[in-house]
# Entry
Amino acid sequence: MGITTTPILPGRGRGARGGNVSVDSIAREMARLYWSFDIVTSLVDYYGFRGKGARTVEELEECLTEQTRHRISHSWDSRKVLP
# Structure
């Protein structure tokens, strides 16, 4: 199908180990990657998701989409972001 994936751990710089993720950190990373890839998605273990409270996975995905859209704003294409 001609699809190539590029796994990227959220974090700052070299040596990032992932883990301890939040909506804010993932949305920031997805917005940064938005310009470099055809589609940006996430694969997150929601068990250790920081600040999830009582929100469901679906509610977290919706929040992630909204925060990413807010960061990208003027060139938003919902087909490019799949939380």
